[in-house]
Amino acid sequence: MKTVSILIPEGAVLPSIADPRYMFTAVNEFLNAAGKPGLFKVQLVGLSKEVKFNSGLFSIHTDLLLDEVKKTDLIIIPALSGDLKNSLHINREFIPWITQQYQQGAEVASLCIGAFMLASTGLLNGKKCSTHWLYANEFRDMFPEVTVVDDKMITEQSGLYSSGGATSYWSLLLHLVEKYTSREMAILASKYFVIDIGRNNQSPFIMFQGQRDHEDELVIRAQEYIEQNFKNKITVDHLSDKFGIVRRTFERRFKKSTRNTVVEYIQRVKIEAAKKSFETSRKTIYDVMYDVGYTDIKAFREVFKRITGMPPIDYRNRYNKNVVVV
Predict the structure, then answer these.
(1) Same domain, 39 and 183
(2) Which of 204, 200, 211 has the alpha carbon at shortest distance from 264?
(3) 151-194, pLDDT tens digit by residue?
(4) Are the C-beta atoms of 176 and 161 separated by less than 8 Å?
(5) pTM above the 0.85 mark?
(6) Total structural domains within the chain
(7) 230 and 180: one domain?
(8) 128 in a structural domain
């Protein structure tokens, strides 16, 4: 029997508590239906017997208080909400307990931006972690010792797991079910919950918005120029000449401020524009390619796939309702 402890922090996102409980409970029922004993003991663990949410509109009654759990096999950290620094402060008593349980052999899985709580333990230092793509830069600022892989649905290292944004945690839950039971059981669960099994990339969902949370005015002006002129061919030399700065210094300042090289930033702006065109227009792949300043179809496809995780035609077919797939 594996004990699964789902934490109930204040300000947690309710579905990220209810869904893992539902998943592991359902797998027990699947096992029972097959004449096998249930494998998971699922318990809700908090700092108080009742945790209120949404200004008291909802509440969860915990099964156990934190100090009543002496040993567990798997800890689930749900997604957090609101101001993350404040949320971590309010729930700080969870941090040493998670560390202690991990040192005693427990595995730990964070869902979405629950990664901020997992990273607060220090256990992720020197390791990779996924989280919601929208919070990736904030995560990098708060936890520079952790490598964020915001394109990944799931990361797994040394008994530490993380998932990408929002409902991508279902992919992590399926991964854990497969690890603790079997591939067959994970497939059954995927069919029951109508979830694609084997998803490992959240790149198609990322919306590039540029990084403006810095104070380098020259870099901000360069970003604005790129975003206003993405249809043209833009080079690093052109930008450094335009803004009167040595290329090497410009590249260093740009990378420090935006966490992207100049070339990466130009590519991401162009591909974001291409994505929006694919989503809303009937233009061909070639038309969109030319619109965003590419002339080489091979180069366009390679950059598009690297950034979004799928070829341009697949992206268009998935997101444009006017496309007729034959």
Answers:
(1) yes
(2) 211
(3) 778 899 999 999 988 788 999 999 999 999 998 899 999 999 98
(4) yes
(5) no
(6) 2
(7) no
(8) yes
